[in-house]
Amino acid sequence: MKTIIALALAFTATLALPALAAPETFVIDSNHTYPRFEYSHFGFSNQVSRFDKTTGTVVLDRAAKTGSVDVIIDTNSVSTGYPTFDGHLKGEDFFDTKKFPTITFKSNKLNFEGDKLTAVDGNLTIKGVTKPVKLDITSFKCMPHPMLKKEACGANAVTKIVRSQFNAGKYAPNVSDDVTLTIAIEAIKQ
Questions:
Q1: Dist CA 74 CA 89 (whole Å)
Q2: The dihedral of CA 109, 111, 112, 117: what is its sign?
Q3: Residue 57 and residue 144: Cα distance in Å, rounded?
Q4: DSSP string spanning 78-111?
Q5: What's the pTM?
Q6: What's the chain's average pLDDT?
Q7: By CB neighbour count within 10 A (0-12 exposed, 13-18 middle, 19+ buried), where does 5 fall?
Q8: Rounded CA gap, 122 and 159, in Å?
């Protein structure tokens, strides 16, 4: 009788254990993901421009606090608000979009403090040059998307890079070599 009671208690205890979370895959929403870059223009002002086409995936295991990020930015989608300057940035001195049509960020290291995502360490590739960077997460939220009725996550991530390290240092230091890269990202669970 004691054996039956022990088995019954063990079975009941396993039912009470929370289900282990599995990694979830989110696809970047290109309509709400716009990487931006900011730099000083001769000390007159800080200029902010963006890329209009970004794709990729985010894999997130919230229980294990692990995941991966794969972001692909279309360099031909650079947008300054001035088509002539867009063409200049697409040239060899800067993005060289004919040879390097994408900028990528790839990561397998998400950093959490408790349940809060605080940073993502990965590799940024611009013009065929890959450098390790740390994206600091300034905001992060997952919830059911009110319009799509699917789970969605969003974040704002920021880092500073030195553009000459990516063979894009034309006019430095007059046009600052230091560039702030901000990625505002939204992704939908698949």
A1: 13
A2: negative
A3: 18
A4: EE-S-HHHHHHHHSTTTT-TTT--EEEEEEEEEE
A5: 0.87
A6: 91
A7: exposed
A8: 11
